[in-house]
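FAQ

Q: What does a record look like?
A: Structure on top, sequence underneath. For example:
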């Protein structure tokens, strides 16, 4: 499925952002082209809540972060450069490794995880 040689390194960098949270969440997918984390079963929503994922697609590598959908105020301070990579309310698409943007996304993921934990979703 990988259509571009830069995508596996981008995928690995994005997976590294999510991996620290695997200790407290559930790894649902862990392959060479996909990595996904869920929180535990939530009584209020009657299901496991999706936290985040990375997936290699045909034209880019997608990074999904559900806390951004749950807490849109987290997006209040993101840079215009990172905003350009957004698709929808909780997805970012990358075609190459952009260190400063991945660092910013890592901080945003940490903030999202902290809110997720604080609200008892994990």
């Amino acid at each position: 499925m990988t259509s571009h040689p830069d995508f596996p390194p981008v995928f690995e960098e994005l997976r590294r952002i999510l991996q620290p949270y695997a200790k407290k969440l559930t790894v649902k997918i862990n392959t060479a082209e996909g990595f996904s984390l869920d929180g535990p079963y939530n009584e209020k929503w009657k299901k496991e809540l999706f936290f985040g994922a990375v997936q290699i697609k045909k034209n880019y590598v997608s990074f999904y972060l559900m806390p951004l959908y749950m807490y849109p105020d987290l997006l209040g301070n993101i840079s215009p450069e990172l905003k350009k990579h957004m698709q929808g309310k909780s997805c970012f698409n990358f075609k190459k490794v952009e260190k400063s943007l991945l660092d910013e996304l890592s901080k945003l993921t940490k903030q999202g995880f902290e809110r997720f934990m604080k609200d008892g979703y994990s």
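Q: Is there anything notable about this one?
A: The mean pLDDT is 91.
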